[in-house]
Amino acid sequence: MSIEVNNESSIPVDETALLRLASYALDQLHVHPDAELAIVLVDEAAMEQLHVQWMDEPGPTDVLSFPMDELRPGTEDAPTPAGLLGDVVLCPQVAEAQAQTAGHSTLEELLLLTTHGILHLLGFDHAEPEEEKEMFGIQRDILVGFAMSERRRPA
């Protein structure tokens, strides 16, 4: 997997945890090992600019996804072809506020948002109730599986 994490924000983030999660998620979704993904962390002003430019909505948001080759999840027998998956853009300041409201760490919120963004890159959406149920179920399964794999990881 070619996964690049670039923290352009002023907030320190555990980039290796985001990298491990992204690798785990792409593996679980049977994405080709040569697929490329970029995760970019930006400050609120940059996220607000992207949010207005691409979604025509004011204010910063937590995560935006920019798919490239419109790849879809594969299967064990037929993985996704290699290609450019796209970019996931995160805003740590928004994630931090959401984490406080949710009662968990900022890192946990960033892991959730990264998973959410990757699923959007692979064509998942949550506009309709059935889509939301499917996407959030996969998101939960990935996060739970990742947390379990992290517990087994040597320190």
Automatic annotation (TrEMBL):
UniProt-annotated location(s): Cytoplasm
InterPro entries with a match to the protein in the record: MetalPrtase_cat_dom_sf_prd, YbeY, YbeY_CS
Cofactor requirement: Zn(2+)
Entry's cofactor comment: Binds 1 zinc ion.
Residues where Zn(2+) binds: 116, 120, 126
Keyword Nuclease in record: yes
Top EC class, one word: hydrolase
Keyword terms, alphabetized: Cytoplasm, Endonuclease, Hydrolase, Metal-binding, Nuclease, Ribosome biogenesis, rRNA processing, Zinc
Domain of life, per lineage: Bacteria
EC number: 3.1.-.-
Gene3D superfamilies with a match to the protein in the record: Metalloproteases ('zincins'), catalytic domain (3.40.390.30)
Function: Single strand-specific metallo-endoribonuclease involved in late-stage 70S ribosome quality control and in maturation of the 3' terminus of the 16S rRNA.
Family: Belongs to the endoribonuclease YbeY family.
PANTHER family recorded: ENDORIBONUCLEASE YBEY, CHLOROPLASTIC
Protein's recorded name: Endoribonuclease YbeY
Species per Swiss-Prot/TrEMBL record: Herbiconiux daphne
